[in-house]
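Example S7 (structure tokens).
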């Protein structure tokens, strides 16, 4: 049984963060030489990834797919149970890797690193569509 209220809140948060990304109007890694852009983008990417992990965890829990021991395990379980593709699992797991860098080793991140996450973050939109489809099927 899905916690529709919680899942809806997570989706709304992610969609708001994507609007914030659009507002920043980042076009290239050179835009990140402006420290305001660099730190703003880093924080938004971190927030999107955290809420994506929350969303994945909700789906795993509601479907009783197992107990993930790491954030990456959430997406492995979703893939193993045919909720997401292997390709999407890889993309989301890569975002988890970057999320850990953003949270624990932010002092070593370059403009190139942050821009790379920015390019990859679109995988979350694919995941959102899958979750929305699941919710529609389970009404």
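Recovered sequence:
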């Amino acid at each position: 049984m899905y916690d529709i209220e919680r899942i809806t809140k997570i989706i709304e948060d992610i969609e708001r963060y994507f609007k914030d990304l659009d507002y920043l109007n980042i076009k290239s890694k050179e835009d990140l030489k402006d420290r305001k852009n660099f730190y703003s983008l880093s924080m938004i990417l971190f927030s999107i990834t955290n809420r994506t992990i929350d969303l994945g965890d909700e789906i795993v829990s509601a479907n009783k797919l197992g107990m993930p021991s790491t954030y990456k395990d959430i997406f492995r379980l979703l893939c193993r149970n045919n909720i997401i593709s292997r390709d999407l699992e890889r993309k989301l797991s890569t975002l988890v890797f970057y999320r850990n860098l953003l949270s624990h080793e932010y002092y070593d991140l370059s403009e190139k690193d942050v821009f790379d996450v920015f390019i990859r973050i679109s995988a979350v939109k694919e995941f959102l569509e899958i979750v929305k489809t699941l919710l529609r099927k389970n009404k």
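Notes on this example. The chain has one domain: 4-137.
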